[in-house]
Amino acid sequence: MSWSEPIEPVPTAPPPGAVSYGPGVVDELAGDDGGQWWLAVLLGLMMLGLGVWMLANLVESVVVLAIVIGVSLIAGGLIDAFVLGGPERPRWVGWIEGLLLVGTGIVVLSWPDITLWVLAITGGLALALGGVLHLVLALVHRHHDPGWRVDLALGLLGLALGVAVLAWPEATILVLALLFGIRAVLVGLLAIGAGWQMRRRHSGEVAAVA
């Protein structure tokens, strides 16, 4: 090597366990367990299907709507608990919101004669409280967590939909199905994207080890 040639810096390997996140929203949402990517995609597809069904069947009975909303709340709670969350997000946050949504979904499903008013109150409270939790998390971690904007967006969405449902508990089935359907579609798409990102990252890690 000639002394006139520039010396190229030697690349340093990342510390064990470090994960590289891209600038995209999906990267900020995806968790670290790449081996469970299929669970994220499965739950995301379930939420997406439920959301599309609600948007396509806006005039079903209260009982049918309650069943679909209850299942969507449970699926959304599982997504919050096991799928969504960046590297800086405490795991207990996802568990709290997940338990909140799953518990509300179980209450809705176990109430065979539920009225539209009760369905609106229980569902609206779950969405509003989950939104507040996301907003608090975004404000607390806004200086050191690149995914705080995602939490902010999810928090604003959940709080807005929850307040809208609570402010109009006598809303028609059409309005209630529309609001919950929109949320289910958006959360489903985010979960599918996060699962795909987890799969890609996991495949890259396996290839690097091999």
For this entry, give a set of tags:
210 residues; 0% strand; mainly alpha
Secondary structure: elements and pairs:
Elements: H1 25-29, H2 37-56, H3 62-82, H4 91-109, H5 116-140, H6 148-167, H7 173-209
Helix pairs in contact: 2-3, 2-7, 3-4, 3-7, 4-5, 5-6, 6-7
Task: Characterise this structure.
It is built from seven helices and no strands.
**Percent of residues in helical segments?**
over 70%
Q: pLDDT below 50 for ≥5 consecutive residues: which ranges?
A: 9-26
Q: What is the alpha-carbon Rg in Å?
A: 20 Å
Number of E strands: 0
How large a portion of the residues is in β-strands, by DSSP E? under 5%
User: Largest sheet, described in full?
Assistant: none
- Determine the structural class based on helices, strands and strand pairing: mainly alpha
The geometry reads as globular
Order of helices and strands: HHHHHHH
| Total number of helices | 7
Mean pLDDT level: 77
Distance between the termini: 32 Å
Brief summary:
Helix content is 70%, strand content 0%.
